């Protein structure tokens, strides 16, 4: 670079720094007081931008192929695209009126909070360790978050704790299978919660991973409990995380209220088209679920043989949570080798816990290799005797 260029570029840099500084001042002055100190959701993507094997966001390891016609984009889409709603209604065997299509399940969470919680006044109840977006969406809407932690011995609901908040919250979030633990919440406990909050709160059951254990769905209870809301997504078993499409299932009188708050065109036309295709050709999803379960068993066996494994959590989903003796060392070593999994150590009761998504076979193979190389480095274990735990103890 010439001297003149260099000078010009430094001047440019200086000016843009100055502009950034002024913009920052203004944004800080104008932003809502309760948003100012908020920490944004650390999505798996945002947290790690480098890596080659992605096993940190419970995404599918393969991508489906779709056909797309992009004519007629001059028109606004339907508020709720008919073909999409019909396809989902057929898929989960519930009347159209019980459905709202959303920009991912995350938008369902947000719209529920914005519709039912008076900001700076109402509260929601969550059962940690659990999915992070319930608390983030509540915070963004200046809504208090009350905790009724899961029982640590079996990761089930603490009904006594839940009972204590009857009348004090508008929404109760239950995730089943629970992210990040992987287990289902017992049906009897969910029903007890529905009964306890019958007249005072909606019980929102997040079924993002229900395709991995379809017999556990609460959809049949929608007709019995007017306070039951179910969240669904195409991001996991349908392998469409990039599409951003989810569903909220509830009594039509709840859906009617949500319709007042959600954006006027939440589902773009291409999204509706791709989602409808995926829902009408479901064998693709079913095959993926079957192979994910097989790979999960394989990964489970592999983890069980590791010298550093402290605890392996039972999973009914497409990820495995496990406790190790030094999560930081293992996590960092995998990352260095380009294998990105998720560190859950900061979650309530999950010290030294890591979560690995069950991606495709090639991805898991990379994960296994990286783990073995970590073992060699930290335990001086050769790959040959790894499968014989005695030799290391
Ligand atoms: C992934 C996930 C979601 C978000 O789903 P999107 O449809 O991608 O917004 C919601 N809940 C849980 C428990 C999840 O793991």
What's the topology here?
Blueprint: H1 3-30, H2 33-36, H3 44-47, E1 53-54, H4 82-92, E2 99-102, H5 104-116, E3 123-126, H6 133-140, E4 144-147, H7 159-163, E5 171-175, H8 187-196, E6 202-206, E7 228-233, E8 246-250, H9 252-261, H10 269-280, H11 283-304, E9 309-312, E10 319-324, H12 327-336, E11 339-340, E12 342-343, E13 353-357, H13 361-379
Parallel strand pairs: 1-11, 3-4, 3-5, 5-6, 6-7
Antiparallel strand pairs: 2-8, 7-8, 9-10, 10-13, 12-13
Helix pairs in contact: 4-10, 5-6, 5-9
The chain binds pyridoxal-5'-phosphate.
- Give the percentage of residues in beta strands: 5-15%
Mean pLDDT: 92
Number of helices: 13
Q: Give the overall form.
A: globular
Uncertain parts: 384-393
Distance between the termini: 60 Å
Describe the structure.
- It is built from 13 helices and 13 strands.
- The chain has 393 residues and is α/β, with parallel strands linked by helices.
- It has a 7-stranded mixed beta sheet with strand order 2-8-7-6-5-3-4, sandwiched between helices. Strands 9-10-13-12 form a 4-stranded antiparallel beta sheet, covered by helices on one side.
- Helix 5 (104-116) crosses helix 9 (252-261).
- The longest helix has 28 residues, at 3-30.
- Residues 384-393 have low confidence and may be disordered.
- The structure holds pyridoxal-5'-phosphate.
């Amino acid at each position: 670079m010439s001297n003149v260029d260099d000078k010009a570029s430094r001047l440019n840099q200086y000016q843009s720094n100055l502009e950034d500084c002024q913009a920052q001042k203004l944004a800080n002055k104008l932003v809502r007081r309760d948003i100012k100190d908020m920490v944004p959701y650390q999505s798996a993507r945002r947290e790690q931008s480098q890596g080659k094997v992605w096993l940190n966001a419970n995404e599918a390891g393969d991508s489906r192929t779709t056909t797309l016609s992009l004519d007629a984009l001059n028109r606004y889409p339907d508020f709720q695209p008919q073909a999409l709603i019909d396809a989902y209604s057929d898929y989960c065997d519930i009347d159209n009126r019980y459905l709202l299509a959303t920009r991912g399940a995350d938008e369902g969470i947000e719209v529920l909070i914005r519709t039912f919680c008076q900001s700076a006044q109402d509260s929601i109840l969550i059962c940690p360790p659990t999915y992070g977006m319930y608390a983030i969406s509540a915070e963004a809407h200046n809504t208090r978050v009350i905790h009724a932690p899961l029982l640590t011995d079996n990761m089930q609901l603490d009904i006594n704790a839940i009972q204590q908040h009857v009348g004090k919250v508008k929404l109760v979030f239950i995730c089943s299978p629970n992210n990040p633990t992987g287990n289902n919440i017992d049906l009897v406990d969910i029903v007890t919660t529905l009964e306890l909050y019958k007249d005072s709160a909606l019980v929102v059951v997040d079924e993002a991973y229900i395709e991995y254990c379809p017999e556990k769905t609460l959809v049949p209870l929608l007709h019995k409990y007017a306070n039951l809301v179910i969240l669904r997504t195409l991001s996991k078993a349908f392998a469409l995380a990039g599409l951003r499409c989810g569903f909220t299932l509830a009594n039509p009188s709840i859906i009617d209220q949500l319709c007042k708050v959600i954006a006027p065109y939440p589902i773009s036309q291409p999204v509706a088209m791709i989602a409808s295709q995926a829902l009408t050709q479901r064998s693709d999803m079913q095959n993926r679920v079957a192979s994910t379960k097989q790979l999960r068993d394989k990964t489970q066996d592999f983890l069980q043989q590791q010298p550093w494994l402290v605890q392996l959590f039972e999973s009914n989903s497409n990820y495995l949570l496990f406790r190790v003796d030094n999560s930081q060392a293992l996590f960092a070593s995998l990352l260095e080798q380009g294998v990105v999994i998720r560190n859950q150590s900061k979650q309530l009761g999950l010290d030294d816990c890591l979560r690995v998504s069950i991606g495709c076979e090639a991805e898991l193979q990379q994960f296994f290799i990286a783990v073995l190389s970590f073992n060699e480095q930290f335990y001086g274990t050769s790959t040959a005797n790894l499968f014989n735990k005695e030799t290391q103890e």
